[in-house]
Design goal:
This protein is of the alpha/beta class. The radius of gyration is 17 Å and the shape is globular.
Length: 226
C-alpha cells in the first residue's frame, strides 16, 4: 500500500525568493513581484495524490489577496497564513516554521506507511527552539519517506541542499525552471529606497509540465557536493 503525500509551502521563503530572482533576472523592484499560486500549486501537486495534508504557511504581503481563493481551490490549509499590513519589503514570522516542523513530526510519528513529503522552502537554518526543516527532512529520510524539496536555487541553504549527499531519497527541485510561469509583474511606478521604477506589466506564461523540465530542474548529486 502506498503512503500518503503531504505538501508544505513556506510562503515567506518562496515569495521572498521570487522577489530576489525577479530582481536578478529582470531588474524588477520587489513591490511589483507577484506569484501565480494557481501555477505553483499545480506544479507542486503534479502527478501526486491528494490524500494527505496540504499546508500553506507564512506571511503574505499586500496585493496578493487572490492567494486565499487559489489556496482554497487547491485544497490547502491556510490557518498558518498571515497578512502583512505594511508593505516594507520584509516578511516577518513568529512561530510559523516551528508549527510546520511540528506538523511534519507528527505525521512521521503517526503514519505507519511511509509516503512522500513535498516541502517548498530553501530555509535550512535552525530556529531558536532548536528545530529546522533540515532536521525534519533527515528524520523523514531515515524513516524511508520520499522527500521533494522545491526551492529557488539562489535561496537554497547549503545545509538543506546537502542532505541528499547522505540520503539519496531526498530530491531537490529548482523552481527556476518555471520562473516565467510562476512569477509575474504588476505594472506601475514604484519607489524603493528613494529611487523610482517604472514597471511594464508581465503576465505569467502558461505552465508546461514536461518530463524534460523536471529532469532539468532536479539538482544532480554531483552539484550538491560543490
Amino acid at each position: 500500500m502506498a503512503g500518503k503525500t503531504h505538501i508544505f509551502l513556506d510562503n515567506a521563503n518562496i515569495f521572498g525568493g521570487a522577489q530576489k530572482v525577479a530582481g536578478a533576472k529582470e531588474g524588477a523592484p520587489w513591490p511589483c513581484v507577484r506569484v501565480d499560486y494557481d501555477h505553483l500549486f499545480r506544479l507542486l501537486r503534479h502527478g501526486k495524490s491528494r490524500d494527505g495534508v496540504s499546508m500553506l504557511a507564512g506571511s503574505v504581503p499586500p496585493g496578493n489577496d487572490a492567494l486565499w481563493d487559489s489556496a482554497y481551490n487547491a485544497g490547502f490549509d491556510t490557518t498558518l497564513l498571515h497578512r502583512v499590513k505594511s508593505d516594507n519589503g520584509r516578511l516577518f514570522e513568529q512561530g510559523v516554521d516551528e508549527a510546520i516542523h511540528l506538523r511534519i513530526g507528527n505525521i512521521l510519528l503517526d503514519e505507519e506507511v511511509p509516503g512522500t513529503i513535498v516541502l517548498a522552502t530553501g530555509d535550512g537554518a535552525q530556529t531558536d527552539q532548536g528545530c529546522s526543516f533540515t532536521d525534519q527532512v533527515v528524520r523523514a529520510a531515515k524513516r524511508n519517506w520520499k522527500i521533494e524539496v522545491w526551492s529557488w536555487e539562489s535561496s537554497l541553504a547549503k545545509r538543506l541542499r546537502d542532505t541528499r549527499l547522505k540520503y539519496p531519497s531526498i530530491k531537490i527541485i529548482k523552481l527556476d525552471e518555471w520562473y516565467h510561469s510562476i512569477v509575474f509583474l504588476k505594472g506601475g511606478t514604484y519607489e524603493v529606497k528613494g529611487q523610482s521604477y517604472s514597471v511594464v506589466a508581465r503576465s505569467a506564461r502558461s505552465l508546461d509540465l514536461t518530463e524534460g523540465q523536471f529532469t532539468d530542474a532536479t539538482l544532480p548529486l554531483d552539484k550538491a557536493k560543490k
